[in-house]
């Protein structure tokens, strides 16, 4: 738990450094996520960091909160109502306090403990990894909104691993049967290392780890990356790849971003 919590904390800090200098008008800037501002992106993270803490310390209360959330779904997103009423500066402080409290509870959780969530329960390590993925993915929306660039780190391995492991889920959430066979994934890490999954498969996704993470979090269309995708299983999967829980996302359109990121 110490290792993944250290990486999650580092991901928090990296995004904090980007949003901390923003003016109030910049907090309202639109992101590539349709209808969402930078403030909404941080509001989303703050809300789900709070519910993640609740899942750790009071699973019954968490389950009740999920039921209440589903009952309140409508044209407006109830997870963003509170944060949209705050100033950017106040929201930043709320996010800082919430994520610190989450990390405190994560660090003292048994790594093998099963934690309830909006999909199937996860081990505590996987749970923390999913929070890192969410922080990075919503951070990408903010980076894109600002026209900024952030240096990739080997923390991308966590996101890539979720992306590979979530291949069956990508089919299930799209109402499709999971095809037989695996897809080899071979990625260049920011450090220069090579990360590989499913080495025996002939179908292949190969390229830069950042490109792969952008695709499986649906922050880039595969056409706007330099990924090499070979074989029918690989091509079929990469078109619907989804590392995050919930229904299929709308993703990004081809040509929306250049391959240079």
CATH class category name of the largest domain? Mainly Alpha
CATH fold annotation of the largest domain: Four Helix Bundle (Hemerythrin (Met), subunit A)
Record the strand order, biggest sheet. Answer: 4-3-5-6
Helix content: 40-55%
Number of helical elements: 11
What CATH architecture of the largest domain do you see?
Up-down Bundle
What class, by secondary structure content? alpha+beta
Rg, rounded, reads: 18 Å
Q: Hey, roughly how much beta strand do the residues contain?
A: 5-15%
Oligomer: single chain
Low-confidence stretches: none
Mind telling me the CATH superfamily name of the largest domain? dinb family like domain
Intertermini distance: 32 Å
How many extended strands? 6
The major β-sheet equals: 4 strands, mixed
What's the number of domains?
Answer: 2
Whole-number mean pLDDT: 95
Name the shape in a single word. Answer: globular
């Amino acid at each position: 738990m110490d290792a993944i919590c250290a990486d999650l904390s580092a991901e928090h800090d990296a995004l904090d450094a980007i949003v901390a200098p923003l003016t109030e008008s910049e907090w309202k800037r639109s992101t590539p996520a349709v209808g969402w501002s930078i403030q909404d992106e941080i509001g989303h993270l703050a809300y789900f960091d709070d519910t993640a803490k609740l899942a750790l310390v009071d699973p019954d209360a968490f389950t009740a909160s999920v039921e209440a959330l589903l009952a309140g779904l409508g044209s407006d997103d109830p997870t963003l109502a509170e944060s949209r009423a705050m100033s950017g500066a106040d929201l930043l402080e709320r996010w800082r306090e919430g994520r610190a409290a989450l990390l405190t509870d994560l660090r003292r959780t048994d790594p093998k403990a099963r934690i309830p969530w909006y999909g199937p329960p996860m081990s505590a390590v996987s749970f923390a990894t999913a929070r890192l993925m969410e922080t990075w993915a919503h951070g990408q929306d903010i980076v894109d909104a600002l026209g900024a660039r952030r240096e990739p780190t080997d923390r991308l391995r966590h996101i890539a691993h979720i992306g590979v492991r979530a291949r069956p889920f990508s089919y299930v959430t799209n109402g499709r049967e999971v095809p037989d066979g695996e897809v080899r994934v071979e990625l260049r890490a920011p450090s220069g290392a090579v990360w590989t999954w499913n080495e025996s498969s002939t179908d292949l996704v190969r390229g830069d780890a950042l490109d792969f993470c952008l695709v499986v979090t649906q922050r880039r269309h595969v056409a706007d990356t330099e990924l090499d995708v070979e074989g029918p299983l690989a091509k079929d999967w990469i078109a619907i790849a989804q590392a995050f829980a919930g229904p299929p996302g709308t993703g990004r359109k081809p040509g929306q971003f250049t391959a240079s990121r």
